[in-house]
From TrEMBL:
Domain Peptidase M14: 33-311
Alphabetical list of InterPro entries matching this protein: AstE_AspA_cat, Peptidase_M14
Gene3D superfamilies associated with the record: Zn peptidases (3.40.630.10)
Name recorded for this polypeptide: M14 family metallocarboxypeptidase
Family: Belongs to the peptidase M14 family.
This protein's record includes keyword Zinc: yes
Top-rank taxon, per record: Bacteria
Coiled-coil regions, chain positions: none
Cofactor(s) the protein requires to work: Zn(2+)
Assigned keywords, A-Z: Hydrolase, Metal-binding, Zinc
Organism phylogeny: Bacteria, Pseudomonadati, Pseudomonadota, Gammaproteobacteria, Chromatiales
């Protein structure tokens, strides 16, 4: 595990929350596009399995920031049946977490047909397009979409995704949300959050490997273990740190910690699904590579769906 490194963020004054001036300065340093949402995501969605259909569920308008509009897309079962359970996959809530987006896209191409015969599938592969293009955790308003999945959430990305999910009839049986933990969590995103909020940052040890974040209110230990066992065949699972923790949380079982998803406004708390998982891979590990990270995400989705449909 990489040691935590203290870092004071260069924007703002320690102990004081950001105002509009600080947020504008932050945004001015983030606008450079590093990759294309249109090319990487939208173009990839133009060729789908026969039993899948593409729907535009909204668009993000950031013209007030002199930024482009982004159309938002989901892939769903073409023959949606209200009496079938719903299996939900979300990716790119944090746009910088690459394998979450590409893992969702790979699942659509490789496994959508396999599961669409047994359930209604709904996949939102890239909830935060601007974050994807600029490799950012936040949106242009300096808001974390993955703290905004609640009625009072500030991020339009989260609100539109929630509306899309709620507009589909049927009972959600399983929801898996695809994420990464990267070295930039310590070098950029956690220090930025502390600066924005006027608090003191304490970095954590980045777990070296794949791990899961379950829901404190819906722990489902057998479900979590099935996913860990499947992913272990693809890439390594993160060991706990010297305090028996991952990202500051006590281990529940090998490779698994729990968060209270609803109270934190996390994407994983957006439904009443019995089976809920947030995946985390570590793309900066010397023991893996980008393709393995994508394969780990796909393996997690497949294992989660298999377990949910048989239990």
């Amino acid at each position: 595990m990489k040691p935590a490194t203290p870092f004071i963020y260069p924007i703002g004054t320690q102990g004081q929350c950001w105002g509009d001036t600080e947020k504008a300065l932050w945004l001015s340093q983030q606008k450079q596009t590093k990759r294309s949402y249109q090319q990487d995501v939208v173009s990839a969605l133009q060729s789908l399995p026969a039993d899948a259909e593409l729907v535009q569920y909204g668009h993000i308008d950031y013209s007030r920031h002199q930024l482009p509009d982004y159309a938002l897309y989901a892939v769903r079962s073409k023959n949606w049946q209200a009496d079938l359970p719903v299996l939900l996959v979300t990716g790119g809530v944090h746009g910088y977490e690459t394998s979450g987006v590409h893992g969702a896209l790979a699942f659509i191409q490789q496994h959508f047909a396999e599961f669409s015969r047994q359930a209604n599938l709904l996949v939102l592969p890239c909830i935060s397009p601007w974050g994807y293009e600029t490799i950012n955790r936040w949106n242009p308003d300096a808001v974390d979409p993955n703290r905004s999945f609640s009625p009072t959430g500030e991020a339009a990305e989260a609100q539109l995704a929630m509306a899309c999910i709620q507009s589909h009839s049927g009972s959600v049986l399983m929801h898996i949300d695809l994420h990464e933990t990267t070295d930039s969590d310590n070098s950029e995103f956690r220090p930025a959050k502390a600066a924005r909020d006027g608090t003191v940052n304490t970095n954590w040890n980045i777990p070296d490997g794949f791990y899961l974040v379950g829901d404190t209110e819906r722990p489902e230990a057998g479900f979590q273990k099935a996913v860990i066992d499947a992913v272990a065949k693809v890439t390594h699972i993160a060991p706990a740190d010297e305090n028996g923790c991952l990202i500051g949380e006590k281990l529940q079982q090998f490779g698994v910690v729990n968060y209270p998803k609803r109270s934190l406004g996390l994407c994983g708390g957006v439904t009443n699904a019995r089976f809920v998982n947030t995946t985390e891979v570590y793309p900066d590990s010397p023991n893996t590579n980008p393709q393995q990270c994508i394969q780990a995400q796909v393996a997690a989705v497949v294992a989660a769906m298999q377990f949910a449909l048989t239990h």
